[in-house]
Amino acid sequence: MSTLLRPAPAALAPLLSYLHGLTDRRADLEVLQRLLTESAVSVDDVAEFLHFEDRCYCRNLLAESPWFNVLVLCWKSGQRSPIHDHAQSVCAFKVLTGVCSEVAYDLLPDGGVRPARTRDYRAGEIVASHDSETHEVSNLQGDGAELVTLHVYSPPLKTMRVYSPAGAAGAAWRAPERS
Ligand SMILES: [Fe+2]
Q1: Using CB atoms within 10 A of its CB, is residue 99 exposed (0-12), middle (13-18) or buried (19+)?
Q2: Distance from the CA of 92 to the center of ligand 1, in angstroms?
Q3: What is the distance in A from the centroid of ligand 1 to the CA of 10?
């Protein structure tokens, strides 16, 4: 049984139609990337899901079922995710406004991580990750510059592993979520 929390933007109809059709398997990451790329969704379309927090980036739930969730993530300047993997989920997100900085990490035999590459993504660009792929996402823009990203996880990513660049082994972590 799928749940739609508030009326979803029309620009997300093809994406949500695909996601609501998932009843016994997770989404295909290439399909998610294509649907996000093709969607004309803008930050204005998700205005009622925009909520920022001073303490941490804010995850605002737009739609969910046992097989997916869609969240609008709002990042103030300087806010960043932990270094995290994606458990058994696929994840694709689209930058709606601002610049999103991603550092991808390699996993080391001792359980630590090492930075592998850094890339900035601008409005309209897509970032895709799955399973053990490990990264950190940040808003490294200057004071007052906001970042908004639209994320799809399938199945919902409830508990991921987080890592320290100091080399500590991963620990389970649960992201705060606002609905
Ligand atoms: Fe991620």
Answers
A1: middle
A2: 8
A3: 25
Domain that holds residue 36: 3-174
179: in domain: no
3-state helix, strand, coil in the chain (%, to 5): 15, 45, 40
**CA 114 to centroid of ligand 1, rounded, Å:** 16
pLDDT in tens, 56-83: 999 999 999 999 999 999 999 999 999 9
| Gap from CA of 81 to ligand 1 centroid (Å) | 8
Output the CA 103–ligand 1 centroid distance in Å: 10
pLDDT digits (tens, 9 = 90+) for 110-158: 888 999 999 999 999 999 999 989 999 999 999 999 999 999 999 998 8
Q: Which two tokens stand for residue 164?
A: 């320290």
Residue 153's CATH number:
2.60.120.10
Structural domain count, the chain: 1
CA of 9 to the centre of ligand 1 (A): 23
Q: Is residue 146 part of a domain?
A: yes
Query: Who has greater pLDDT, 1 or 112?
Result: 112
